[in-house]
Amino acid sequence: MKNIFLLIIAASICFAQSHPNIMLTKKEVRIIRRDLEKYPLFIKTYSKVKQQIDEAIKQPIEVPVPIDAAGNTHERHKQNAINMQQAGMLYQITQDEKYAKYVRDLFLLYADLYPTLKKHPAATSNSPGRLFWQSLNEYVWAVNTTQAYDCIYEYLNATERKKIEENIFRIMAEFFSVEHAKILDLIHNHGTWSCAAVGMIGMALNDKDLIEKSLYGTKKDKKGGFLKQLETLFSPDGFYTEGNYYARYALMPFYAYANALNNHMPELKIFNYHDSILKKGLYTALQMTYVNGEFIPINDAAKGKDYLSPEMISTIDIAYNQYGKDDTLLGIADKQKSVVLGEAGLLVAQSLSQKKEFPKFKYISAEYSDGAKGNEGGVGVLRFGKPEDQSLVLMKYTGHGLSHGHYDKLSMLYYDNGLEVLQDYGFARFVNIEPKYGGRYLPENKSFAMQTVAHNTVTVDEKSDFDGKESVSEKYHSNKHFFDCKNSDFQIMSAKDTNAYKGVKMQRTVALLNDKLFVQPLVIDIFKVNSNEEHQYDMPYYYMGHFLKTNINYTPYTIEKKILNKNNGYQHLWLEAEGKGNDDGIFHFSWMMPKRYYTLTCSADSNTKILFTRIGGSDPNFNLRNEPAVMFRYKGKSNVFANVIEPHGSFDLVTENSIDSEGKIKSVKVIGSNDEATVIEINTNKNVGWILMITNQESSNNSKHSIEFSNKKFEWTGNYSLIKSN
Amino acid sequence: MKNIFLLIIAASICFAQSHPNIMLTKKEVRIIRRDLEKYPLFIKTYSKVKQQIDEAIKQPIEVPVPIDAAGNTHERHKQNAINMQQAGMLYQITQDEKYAKYVRDLFLLYADLYPTLKKHPAATSNSPGRLFWQSLNEYVWAVNTTQAYDCIYEYLNATERKKIEENIFRIMAEFFSVEHAKILDLIHNHGTWSCAAVGMIGMALNDKDLIEKSLYGTKKDKKGGFLKQLETLFSPDGFYTEGNYYARYALMPFYAYANALNNHMPELKIFNYHDSILKKGLYTALQMTYVNGEFIPINDAAKGKDYLSPEMISTIDIAYNQYGKDDTLLGIADKQKSVVLGEAGLLVAQSLSQKKEFPKFKYISAEYSDGAKGNEGGVGVLRFGKPEDQSLVLMKYTGHGLSHGHYDKLSMLYYDNGLEVLQDYGFARFVNIEPKYGGRYLPENKSFAMQTVAHNTVTVDEKSDFDGKESVSEKYHSNKHFFDCKNSDFQIMSAKDTNAYKGVKMQRTVALLNDKLFVQPLVIDIFKVNSNEEHQYDMPYYYMGHFLKTNINYTPYTIEKKILNKNNGYQHLWLEAEGKGNDDGIFHFSWMMPKRYYTLTCSADSNTKILFTRIGGSDPNFNLRNEPAVMFRYKGKSNVFANVIEPHGSFDLVTENSIDSEGKIKSVKVIGSNDEATVIEINTNKNVGWILMITNQESSNNSKHSIEFSNKKFEWTGNYSLIKSN
Question: Tell me, what CATH number does A393's domain have?
Answer without folding.
Answer: 2.70.98.70
